[in-house]
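Internal tracking record. Fields below are filled automatically when a chain is submitted to the structure queue. Please do not edit lines marked as system-generated. If the sequence contains nonstandard residues, flag them in the REMARKS field before resubmitting.
Queue: standard
Priority: normal
Entity type: single polypeptide chain
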Amino acid sequence: MDLNEIRSRLTNLTTAHLADADKKLRVVSPAIRPVQSGLKLVGCAFTVNCHNDFLTVIKSIHDAKAGDVIVIETQGSRLAVAGELFVAEAMRKGIAGFVIDGAFRDTAAVRKTKFPVYAHTITPMSGTAKRAFHTQVAIECGGITVHPGDLVFGDDDGLLVLSLEEAAHLMPVAEDIKAKEELVLARVQAGEGLHNLTNFEEHWQKIEAGEKSELTFLVD
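SYSTEM-GENERATED OUTPUT FOLLOWS
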């Protein structure tokens, strides 16, 4: 399965669908939030590390390919390492978005675009442009390890990082979860009780008895 197919199929899913398909996926810390709601982010990680300095971020935007996601480890930086000008240049190049375990700025202007940015904090004060750090190395972002080329998938609920192989394996499972949830939702909206659309009674009794069980939907 190629990247374009993975990207296309992921845009029809949510991070919750993927998370339900595999509880062990790498989930970025919920402290890293989207600057603008209502957008999805899908692309391969172009990794950066830096600290209170955005020179290497400029390099990453120059070197990254269309469809890449710039993922930045700032090592606890308090100063912004990206803002409106970097977003404009990234959009010009076709870069998919930014994920910053650190600070961002110019949020009002960026919210007028449809460019996905996730950041840990917001500040008006920018970093320097005097130090060279590294790109395309393994980094720590939001409590997880991100490798160059990892798939980054984000929406309003947060961010997941997975290999292309994991994505190809999990997407059919997530698509089945989505289909079943849509059936359940339609029946609840038509007046049926959620309780009766799952194996809740049997599951509850087994859990009380100390037996193994899984809560499942009773729809096809």
